[in-house]
Design goal:
Structural class: mainly beta
Number of domains: 1
Largest sheet: 7 strands, antiparallel
Number of helices: 0
Radius of gyration: 16 Å
Shape: globular
Number of strands: 9
CATH class: Mainly Beta
CATH superfamily: GroES chaperonin
CATH architecture: Roll
Strand content: 25-35%
Strand order of the largest sheet: 6-7-1-2-5-8-9
């Protein structure tokens, strides 16, 4: 991403993590049958939410976190031809720890066996 984008306040910029094209059993899933992934990587985050007293509360998520979010969360945008989502931190359902990086490919369905989900409130 050549353009630097910094979200304001409690918003975050997220890149969807693409799911695998095949299942564990070797069945190939066509694009028309796939749902949009509800998992993503935080690319950048705003400074935090401003309270009524005028103090800034820092965000719980940070750059590089793998997160889960709702199917219809955020606003889809394009920056330099790449698709991203801008959403508020409150739309994040949880942070994934122990998830594989986007460089590693994994089979659909095997993700839940090795992923710990932590919910923050």
């Amino acid at each position: 991403m050549a353009t630097k984008f910094t979200p304001l306040h409690d918003r975050i910029l997220v890149r969807r993590v693409e799911e695998a094209d095949t299942t564990r059993g070797g069945i190939i899933i066509p694009d028309s049958a796939k749902d949009k992934p509800m998992e993503g990587e935080v690319i950048s985050a705003g400074k935090g939410k401003i309270s009524e007293e005028g103090k800034v509360r820092p965000l719980d998520v940070k750059e590089g976190d793998r997160i889960l979010f709702g199917k219809y969360s955020g606003t889809e945008i394009k920056i330099d031809g790449e698709d991203f989502i801008i959403m508020r931190e409150e739309e994040v359902l949880g942070v994934l720890s122990g998830a594989t990086t986007s460089a590693k490919k994994e089979h659909a369905g095997s993700r839940t066996a090795c992923t710990k989900i932590s919910f923050r409130s």
